[in-house]
Amino acid sequence: MKKMTSYKDTKSGFDSNDSDVQVNNSTQVLLDDLPPQKIVKELDRFIIGQDDAKRAVAIALRNRWRRNQVPFPLRDEIIPKNILMIGHTGVGKTEIARRLAKLAGAPFIKIEATKFTEIGYVGRDVDSIIRDLVDAAIVLVKEKARKALAKKALNFS
């Protein structure tokens, strides 16, 4: 596993004219025709460096999307995989995760957790962390439903 380089050695930039990726109104990229190479290119718009990490998360996102396309009864046979990002402070782990969640239209929360978090000695307990993630997901779903209803209302009138 290659270590992530320091954020201090890289620069982050944004140029909205660089992208050939189709984005809908909720800024979620349409993943049906988005191979890992285009996901990496979209991440390159915001994150400089970390090529190995961007490639790995792009492949993971595409694989997750492909698993969701499998008929429901077969999904139980496919074991989902998760991502664990390890690196020094400031190397861009959070930014990569945040941008990837935005591409996928998934909720994202940032929590500082330690080995003591699980038992509630330091920081927030795991229940409150999970509650925050569920709350973020509910807001995301309600926002999508609101936009769908607004679009339907515009088409109806």
From TrEMBL:
Signal peptide: none annotated. It holds the Pfam family AAA. GO terms for cellular component: HslUV protease complex. The keyword Nucleotide-binding applies. GO terms for biological process: proteolysis involved in protein catabolic process. Keywords: ATP-binding, Chaperone, Hydrolase, Nucleotide-binding, Protease. Residues 83-133 form the ATPase AAA-type core domain. Residues 1-20 are annotated as: Disordered. Gene3D superfamilies: P-loop containing nucleotide triphosphate hydrolases. InterPro entries: ATP-dep_Clp_protease_ClpX, ATPase_AAA_core, P-loop_NTPase. One of its GO terms (molecular function) is ATP hydrolysis activity. Residues 1-12 have a biased composition (Basic and acidic residues). SUPFAM superfamilies: P-loop containing nucleoside triphosphate hydrolases. Belongs to the ClpX chaperone family. HslU subfamily. This is ATP-dependent protease ATPase subunit HslU. It comes from Trichonephila clavata (Joro spider). The gene is hslU.
